[in-house]
Amino acid sequence: MIRPRIRHASYAFLLSFLSLFATGCQTAMSNTDHPHEAGSFRKNSFPLKFTDHNFSAYCFSTIGCKVFYHGRYDVEDRDDEVSSPLMGPDHLQHLDAVRVGIQNFPPPAIVSWRSKDGAYHEAKIDLDEIFKDRRIVHNVDERDIPDNASVADPDILLVVNDRTISVYMKAFIPLKHQRDPGNKYSALSHDAILVYAKTY
């Protein structure tokens, strides 16, 4: 079974890294208007948009699941291989993308699998269409995002669960204030947001 490993990113490191850009460094989301003038920056344009993305696919409660995207299989189970069940919302929140820096957008992902009842399914998932407006999907009020914060490429997760294919987006969104007062690493949102779902 070929299955992507979950990326264990250091939230502390990421928060520190993003904070560097929040102080006025030049980035794609936070360009300096006058490179030689210390502290100058261009405010973010809302809604936030993206030109590259990270990707991984996961299969749960399936038989012989295969997901092909951007020239390779992200999942390539044997035809008789049964995948484990999804263990709930917390399990989903711990999934991350491990293929990084993919330019928007390759051809559709090709998915084939059998659901728990043995029925065979095939699908093409067109991420170009799903994310046609190129918006970074998140659940943060834009007023809570620093004007000069840098937002890295978002994760796109394709999840096959029995008969349903779902597509989620996860993005590291810097916040103006800590979610957990006293925890300096909590000024960051990284939630999996459902963008698309279809049951076959």
Automatic annotation (TrEMBL):
Signal sequence bounds: 1-24
Keyword Signal belongs to the record: yes
Domain of life: Bacteria
Protein keywords: Signal
Protein name: Uncharacterized protein
